[in-house]
Design goal:
Layout (H helix, E strand, L loop, with lengths): L2 H14 L8 E10 L11 E2 L1 E14 L4 E6 L6 E4 L13 H12 L7 E7 L9 H16 L6 H16 L6 H8 L4 E6 L4 E6 L5 E7 L7 H20 L13 H7 L6 H25 L3 H17 L5 H12 L4 E7 L6 E7 L3 H16 L4 E3 L8 E2 L1 H5 L5
The protein binds alpha-D-galactopyranose (GLA).
Length: 400
């Protein structure tokens, strides 16, 4: 828990929503990093994300009227909406995420009560670490607590995805909301996105650190390119179903099976997209076995292969992410590095030996700057818990 974040959030919250702190409830929802298994979730494959200790603090004060008010440290706008008007408006900016979550909750009968919602985050926004899923799930946990409604956590996760798909209009898979809602400290989550079966896999690597490196390149057109990749996967699936009619998802094919049937896909671009999905799914399954054997070097190798596949076959990396990965691969103490999240800018995740951390940041920072003119930022977040209430801890950090 980032105590400094909470302490400074109190000050800003009380400016936004003056009064005593007696009835204020505080929640924390993490961001997530995906270790491997990229663009497999909406293809019924495995993903292997983890919740971070970086995330969003959500402070909520119930109101006596029927208003919902939203404010955040990361955006200039504050928004006020009557509870009967849960509709998307582009100019609402970040507030569309909490609004979408409330809209999805209302649809399943959770009463939406007037409240001031305040968000403070130490996640870089729009950097591929699920800052939006963090706001959605954080709002969901807060709003259900406020309404004294009990809702199964996986159901809440699915409603957060629905908010993103049907309210915000981004056709994302389930991975981000699942990791934010279901994470556990020092664990990654192996999630089968077809059946929504999951297991928590201990990620304890005493002499290694996970380093997240931000390209600091604003993602552009990411949503439309993301939706385009999904459509290409659907096209690939439709072609393959002509020869393997019993598959409903691309991830049901092994790489060997794909080689035997891929000639039915005529378009070379679609063929590459499908190859990424099928090989990435296989890499993800293998990664978990390797980690269970503490074979970090071999896991790191798969991280590198994942990046190459996302670069050459799925084509979602781009100059900046490629520059970061290439720089990371030159550092001896870095056993693996790849882009994480949707791509098109955002962050890489690297597994780095503890004693090479300084060298890693120096070398990667310098090489990246030389190649792109941009300055990278580095985060060494631990793996943390899923969204939860932290009112008691937060109260003790209030100095006002
Ligand atoms: C985004 C989406 C996820 C997933 C990843 C790519 O983060 O929200 O559902 O598809 O991209 O793996």
């Amino acid at each position: 828990m980032n105590e400094a974040l909470i302490a400074s959030a109190w000050e800003k919250f009380l400016q936004f929503s003056p009064g005593t702190i007696n009835h204020v409830e505080v929640f924390f929802a993490p961001g997530r990093v995906n270790l491997i298994g990229e663009h497999t979730d909406y293809n019924g494959g495995f993903v292997f994300p983890a919740a971070l200790t970086l995330g969003t603090v959500v402070m909520v004060r119930p109101r006596k009227d029927n208003l919902l008010r939203f404010s955040s440290t990361s955006f200039a706008t504050s928004i006020e909406v009557p509870i009967g008007a849960l509709r998307y408006h582009a100019e609402y900016d970040f507030a569309n995420y909490p609004l979408g979550m409330l809209w999805a909750l209302e649809k399943v009968g959770v009463p939406i009560l007037g409240a001031d919602y305040f968000f403070a985050s130490d996640l870089p926004s729009g950097a591929g670490l699920s800052s939006s899923a963090s706001i959605e799930v954080g709002t969901g946990v807060a709003a259900t607590a406020l309404a004294k409604a009990s809702i199964d956590r996986i159901k809440l996760v699915k409603l957060a995805q629905k908010a993103e798909n049907d309210f915000v209009g981004v056709n994302c898979g389930i991975m981000d909301q699942f990791a934010v809602g279901m994470g556990e400290a020092d664990h990654a989550i192996l999630l089968d996105c077809n059946r929504l079966d999951y297991s928590l896999v201990p990620f304890v690597a005493p002499s290694y650190r996970l380093v997240i490196t931000n390209t600091n390149k604003r993602r552009e057109l990411a949503d439309s390119k993301y939706n385009e990749r999904r459509a290409q996967c659907e096209q690939g699936l439709a072609a393959l179903q002509r020869v393997v009619p019993d598959i409903t998802y691309l991830a049901q094919l092994t790489p060997q099976q794909l080689v035997e049937v891929e000639s039915v896909i005529v378009d070379p671009v679609i063929k590459k997209r499908v190859r990424h999905v099928v090989t990435e799914h296989a890499r993800t399954k293998r990664s978990v076995e390797l980690l269970r054997d503490d074979n970090f070097a071999a896991f790191g190798q798969l991280m590198n292969e994942s990046h190459v596949s996302l670069r050459d076959d799925y084509e979602v990396t781009g100059r900046e992410l490629d520059a970061l990965a290439k720089a990371a691969w030159t550092v001896n103490g870095c056993v693996g590095s790849r882009m994480t999240g949707a791509g098109f800018g955002g962050c890489t995740v690297s597994l780095v030996k503890e004693n090479a951390l300084q060298e890693f940041m120096q070398v990667v920072g310098d090489l990246y700057h030389e190649e792109t003119g941009l300055t990278a930022s580095f985060y060494t977040s631990a793996l943390g818990d899923g969204a939860k209430k932290i009112t008691k801890e937060a109260m003790s950090l209030c100095r006002f």
